[in-house]
Amino acid sequence: MKYWGAESAERIQNATRVHLVTLTHPSDGSQVATPLVEGVGSSATTIPLGNDELMLNSVRYTITREREISARPGLKHLQRALVEDRTFDWDSDRRDTRPNWNYLLVFTNQTGQSTVAVDLTGALMRKVGDEAESSRNLDAVRIDKFLRYFFESEE
Predict the structure, then answer these.
(1) Residue 68: inside a domain, yes or no?
(2) Where in the sequence is the domain holding 106, given as residue range(s)?
(3) Do the domain assignments include residue 95?
(4) With a threshold of 0.85, does the pTM exceed it?
(5) What's CA 54's distance to the chain center, in Å?
(6) How many domains does the chain have?
(7) Strands of the chain, DSSP E
(8) Higher local confidence (pLDDT), 39 or 131
């Protein structure tokens, strides 16, 4: 799949470890004492697990929870769906909608890490990284019900 790139598509589908990172917006407007990681739309290609905050599309997010989900039921179905073109609506006007990222899925294997941001409310996804083909959101409304089911216990 061109959007993900060959290495990321392989990693997403066959990751040896998968982490789920839960995100929220800080509501108090306080300044961050530690450096932020810039993800989506920058040259960062990995999300350092263990950070408290990060930036996605120039919006600050707080990491509220991080856990390994490699054995989670339904994960293999999600991994397969992510790399299939028919999963996404490529002609959708919603692809340019400003997302509110709720989760990061971090797929890791021996060659590296690939990260997918998920906006569960808007049914949008996006590769976190620097590939030109990944400069837009993916409209995942076709798998919206499955996404809600998969992330249901996280909300």
Answers:
(1) yes
(2) 6-154
(3) yes
(4) no
(5) 13
(6) 1
(7) 17-24, 53-56, 59-68, 103-109, 112-119, 124-128, 138-139
(8) 131
